[in-house]
Amino acid sequence: MAKRITTRKLVQMKQAGERIAMITAYDYPIARLLDEAGVHMLLVGDSLGMVVQGHDSTIPVTLDHMVYHASLVSRAAERALVVADLPFLTYQVSAEQALQSAARLMQEGGAHAVKLEGGGEMAHTVRRLVDSGIPVMGHLGLTPQSVHALGGFTVQGRTRNAAERLLADAMALEEAGAFSLVLEMVPAEVAGLIRRKLTIPVIGIGAGPDCDGQVLVFHDMMGLTSGYIPRHNKVYAQLADVIRQAAAAYCTEVAEGTFPGDGQTIRLKPEEREALRDLLEEAPATPAR
């Protein structure tokens, strides 16, 4: 069995110039496959609100939802580090609230670390969690839980003031003890600057190639998302087409009576059939197929 990826290992990868691969996961079978594929981190993201639950934002996702999905993923991951999102308003009220929420994600959900959104204003909370033995990943740039305050899903850090604020927030999170940072929808040049300034790994999503690693949403990269596809996403497989074709073939075979066939049918042994002959002969006739 391969050794578990740890937060220390991720820092070592940054120092060695090794890129880090992270993908979202929300259930046991997908997490198992991604783990076997060699993904370094599995993110149980509150993005499940959009790609699993069908909402138009992450806001409706509850802590109970996150605990449940984290428990599925953590049971599957033998090698990858499992990071679970703290959902909307489960950590912003106070550091103690954040500690209680994070404790549930780790104790009940089996997560190895938690992720939260916010910059310098969250530094005290990050420090409180880290001091309690909870690894924390930060999240800056486009922060989906604040999408309404940000005015939509827009690129962050385009101006000098905005870039300087992002850098200051990133350094504050590192100083508070965060083991890594996600940068979402940030110009590549700004993301590269932040990556060079930090000693912790910077994981990009829509932040260009000059990051220590990348993260994508599973449903987006596997072609399972309908409608708008973010520019930063790359579709590595068209699983939606495969699923539709397989389901359509199944429906056709059921309608034609070709499924189940002999290979999927259990028959009585001759002696069993003989013992049930009188019962079977009493069965009413069925319409011809």
Topology:
Blueprint: H1 7-16, E1 20-24, H2 28-37, E2 41-44, H3 48-51, H4 63-76, E3 81-85, H5 95-107, E4 113-117, H6 123-131, E5 136-141, H7 147-150, H8 160-176, E6 180-184, H9 188-197, E7 202-205, E8 213-216, H10 218-221, H11 239-256, H12 270-275, H13 277-281
Parallel strand pairs: 1-2, 1-8, 2-3, 3-4, 4-5, 5-6, 6-7, 7-8
Helix pairs in contact: 2-4, 4-5, 5-6, 6-8, 8-9
Provide structural commentary.
- This protein is α/β, with parallel strands linked by helices.
- It has 2 domains: 7-237, Alpha-Beta Barrel (TIM Barrel), CATH 3.20.20.60; 242-281, no CATH class.
- The chain has 13 helices and 8 strands.
- It has helices spanning 7-16, 28-37, 48-51, 63-76, 95-107, 123-131, 147-150, 160-176, 188-197, 218-221, 239-256, 270-275, 277-281, and strands at 20-24, 41-44, 81-85, 113-117, 136-141, 180-184, 202-205, 213-216.
- It has an 8-stranded parallel barrel, surrounded by 7 helices.
- Strand 4 (113-117), helix 6 and strand 5 (136-141) form a beta-alpha-beta unit.
- Helix 2 (28-37) crosses helix 4 (63-76) and helix 8 packs parallel to helix 9.
- The longest helix has 18 residues, at 239-256.
Structural key phrases:
289 residues; alpha/beta; 43% helix; eight-stranded parallel β-barrel; elongated; 2 domains; TIM Barrel
Write down the domain tally. Answer: 2
Compute the average pLDDT.
Answer: 94
Counted by DSSP, the helix tally is: 13
The CATH superfamily name of the largest domain is Phosphoenolpyruvate-binding domains
The biggest sheet, with number of strands, parallel, antiparallel or mixed sense and barrel status, is: 8 strands, parallel, barrel
3D shape: elongated
Provide the CATH top-level class of the largest domain: Alpha Beta
What portion of residues is helical?
40-55%
What is the structural class?
A: alpha/beta
Could you tell me the strand content as a percent range?
5-15%
Question: How many beta-strand segments?
Answer: 8
CATH topology of the largest domain: TIM Barrel
> How far apart are the first and last residues' alpha carbons, in Å?
52 Å
Integer-rounded radius of gyration: 24 Å
The SSE order reads: HEHEHHEHEHEHHEHEEHHHH
CATH architecture of the largest domain, by name, is: Alpha-Beta Barrel
Sheet with the most strands: spatial strand order: 1-2-3-4-5-6-7-8
Q: Which stretches are low in confidence, meaning pLDDT under 50 for 5 or more residues running?
A: none
